[in-house]
């Protein structure tokens, strides 16, 4: 009896700890959203105003400025990067899994190592070369820079996925007269749609979140959304409502994607550590 | 006949690999080697003729500068404090989430969000929350009857503030990844331990932790390398300051290169940082058995 009561108490305690963790995790988001809907008077009110008349003024002010352009820039570079990463990375991952040539382990290790080298080590020579080649402040230049992050990632994630696709499936296709390329396109890729979707989402989010590369290699015509919002900070002084509204607009798509595909993302990340 | 198809097959697979290989070579190996080369020159972006070989002179200058050692100290402080707390709290949270309770699926699916959230926005949010006059942190301190604190402006507190923000970002994700590991463990060792009369603590120490080592090693490696190259939160919340109180190696390299245009020094710093990160990665793989690739 005493044992059961103790269990119920610990169970209750554990549950409240989880609730506390959830609250702590989401309070900054709630704060961001409410601030984005506040008039300046309410945003700076101490003690904080919990009940206030919401306004879309901040969002309107943002859209009247060039924020929409930077939003589109982010989206374009993200889509370019994702398409390039998939086009290059998916065949490579497939070859890494299926081929038995020497250097396979080397390629795998190399791709892992690239993920570990800090961006500064790449960006200094890139900055110098891009200026010579006229690639600074272009979509192409930023796409190339983003590929240093997304391409190894896509290869790594898809290798894990392809390892789970039974080889017999393709062998059957090849016996039926399919070429290797045909087997990949008609058999392996359709089976791997969830993996492809996760890799694409991840690379889209990674590009979307980038700040370091566009800060250095971007310019006036390629201002991305994160760079634009950090510029508000310096140029406009503290307008919390507008900063928060920009923040909400940037974060909203990422939030939706993450909540929708969390399980697939976790599986993709943890390949190798879990059987 | 079969030999021919085998050969063609091999050829096609190599062709699949080649574009990726070339692109990765051009955008990673070549820039990295240029950085290594630059670190052996005296290249300053403002003086185009300064790209001449000076041997280890740049490393001598960089390694004798106080700000470098300050940045090394700051980096290790940040990484140790942030990753240490994240691993411990994250592991605890994962154990809590492993139990069955109403709404368990929803709760489990909510914790990857902060890590995926655009770092610039997280940094801006926390900057506002830390604000001396209008921030919520000082408001809550006030409710507790404590005087307001200059979170980001006080050299003794600024790094702690960055650590706290990083813990907020990464702990839920660590919990999510560790939980995925916990749920993938086989049942038999746990049953055997319970049959043998092991206590909960003994099971945790002698069964769960050893079985979970590859997962913990991998998460540790992810987190350490991410914390090492942390950029957004430093750039936006403190700018490396006050003074140089929150300047890490990564941020110092950025500042030296793109603030002062001393590209050679920045390259040397980035090479030093790469070496440190590789050592950590190899150690995590060797000692903790992170992953199996």
Structure in words:
The complex is a heterodimer of chains A (275) and B (293). By secondary structure, chain A is mainly alpha-helical. Chain A has one domain (69-269): MetI-like (MetI-like fold, Orthogonal Bundle), CATH 1.10.3720.10. In chain A, 79% of the residues lie in helices and 0% in strands. Chain A has 13 helices and no strands. The mean pLDDT of chain A is 84. By secondary structure, chain B is mainly α. Chain B has a single domain (35-288), classed as Orthogonal Bundle (MetI-like fold). In chain B, 73% of the residues lie in helices and 0% in strands. The radius of gyration of chain B is 24 Å and the shape is globular. The mean pLDDT of chain B is 87. Chains A and B meet through helix 1, helix 4, helix 5, helix 6 and helix 7 of A and helix 1, helix 3, helix 5, helix 6 and helix 8 of B.
**Judging from the principal axes of the Cα atoms, what is the shape of chain A?**
globular
N-end to C-end Cα span of chain A:
40 Å
Q: Major sheet of chain B: size, sense and barrel closure?
A: none
User: What would CATH call the architecture of chain A?
Assistant: Orthogonal Bundle
Largest interface: A-B, 98 and 89 residues
**Beta-strand fraction estimate of chain B:** under 5%
Q: State the fourth-level CATH superfamily of chain A.
A: MetI-like
Report the C-alpha radius of gyration of chain A, rounded.
24 Å
Stated plainly, the CATH topology of chain B is called: MetI-like fold
Query: Which parts of chain B are unreliable, with pLDDT below 50 for 5 consecutive residues or more?
Result: none
* Count, helices of chain B: 13
Q: What is the top-level CATH class of chain B?
A: Mainly Alpha
Q: Topology, pairings included?
A:
The complex is a heterodimer of chains A (275) and B (293).
Chain A: H1 2-36, H2 40-43, H3 57-64, H4 67-98, H5 104-116, H6 119-133, H7 139-163, H8 167-175, H9 180-191, H10 193-209, H11 212-217, H12 225-235, H13 240-269
Helix pairs in contact in A: 1-13, 3-13, 4-7, 4-10, 4-12, 5-7, 7-10, 8-9, 10-13, 12-13
Chain B: H1 2-39, H2 57-64, H3 66-98, H4 104-108, H5 113-116, H6 119-129, H7 136-143, H8 158-183, H9 188-195, H10 200-228, H11 232-238, H12 249-259, H13 263-288
Helix pairs in contact in B: 1-13, 2-13, 3-8, 3-10, 3-12, 6-11, 8-10, 8-11, 10-13, 12-13
